Amino acid sequence: MNRILLFAVVTIITFAACKTETKKEDPTKIEKPQKIGETEKIEKAFAKFKSLYRELNEFKNDADFKKFGFGKGGKYNEWLENVREFKQKPDSKLLLKKGVLMGELEQLGMTYANSKGKETEVTKNLNKIFSETISDKPITDEKQSYSENADYDQLKKDYELFGKWTIVNSIVNESYRYEIYKKNNEFVGVRLNDFKTENLNKKGSDYYVKGNKYGEFYRIDKNLNMILFDKDGDLTSAGYKATKTK
Which of 27, 123, 139, 216 reaches 20 to 30 Å from 113, CA-CA? Predict the structure, then answer.
């Protein structure tokens, strides 16, 4: 009888100890999700951009693409949908940190569709920008470099680079690259999407577009941060935002 009671007591104590030990282990099994840092988000967004850019280069010369482009039901429409879907996500804006935009990749794809896969000044310029950004160094091999607009080439020879920006209009979902060059007291701005140039009249930190009927000008501080204006005021409320790029 005593042996039975002793066995029962030992069993109860052992069970209680196991239960207590289990309770102590429970907190260690709960893993709190770690927050993803901005740098990691940027790299993930950039990896997505590079993947889509690589896909475009793989199919832009295909006969089906030249014939049907991104037509609905076609095999390449999914690529365009993926680009547009990602462009709407907040993380796509992080690509500005790398100096590229999903809207530019979409523009490159649409230009290839319209040109039947042939190179144009727009595709050459965008490819040069993307290639340099992805390789993180200028392309110096003559065979790999892309020809640019002749007037733009001459501008870069005659003038000194003042600054580079990416200008976005979030309302119409458009963007373009903008550069300003200077020589003595002369300033010339150029839009890289169409190589349109404009002479700028500097007044303090404001750079007025000469001959512009809307009174448009750029306000640029000593750190090259830019805000767009017209005669009615700041254009931020109209969707315009400029981001300095390297």
Answer: 139
